Automatic annotation (TrEMBL):
Entry GO terms, CC: mitochondrial membrane
Cellular localization per UniProt: Mitochondrion membrane
Any single GO BP term: mitochondrial respirasome assembly
PANTHER family the UniProt entry points to: HIG1 DOMAIN FAMILY MEMBER 1A, HYPOXIA-INDUCBILE GENE 1 HIG1 -RELATED
Domain (HIG1): residue spans on this chain: 1-90
Name of the protein described by the UniProt record: HIG1 domain-containing protein
Keyword ATP-binding: no
Pfam family, one: HIG_1_N
Domain of life of the native organism: Eukaryota
């Protein structure tokens, strides 16, 4: 079960936003893990003199970095739209409650 975190977009720093996106978007975390694995594999290939293997790992690292960036941007846009919808629903709920309160006051 995912934990809910409170955030305030007005005071949220860039680093806090990146951390929040990593918590919300598990695909990004997987992409980062694969990027690190490819980098470790490439460094192993360089140390052991296996040029072809190292070259494949460097290419895989670049591909995983692209995948991670695409997931980060896509997840950010998805969750941004989701938050806008949630804020709109909350605001509409507040307006309904305010109208009901004013009607009760006038009665």
């Amino acid at each position: 079960m995912a934990e809910e975190y409170y955030y305030d977009e007005d005071t949220e720093t860039a680093m806090e936003k990146v951390k929040r996106l990593f918590r919300e978007n598990k695909v990004v975390a997987a992409g980062v893990g694969l990027t690190i694995a490819a980098f470790v594999g490439a460094s192993y290939g360089v140390r052991t003199g296996r040029r072809e293997f190292a070259q494949h790992m460097f290419r895989a690292r670049v591909g995983f970095q692209f995948f991670t960036l695409a997931a980060l941007l896509g997840g950010g846009m998805f969750y941004d739209n989701k938050r806008k919808e949630e804020r709109l629903a909350i605001e509409q709920g507040r307006m309904v409650a305010l109208d009901q309160h004013q009607q009760e006051k006038n009665v």
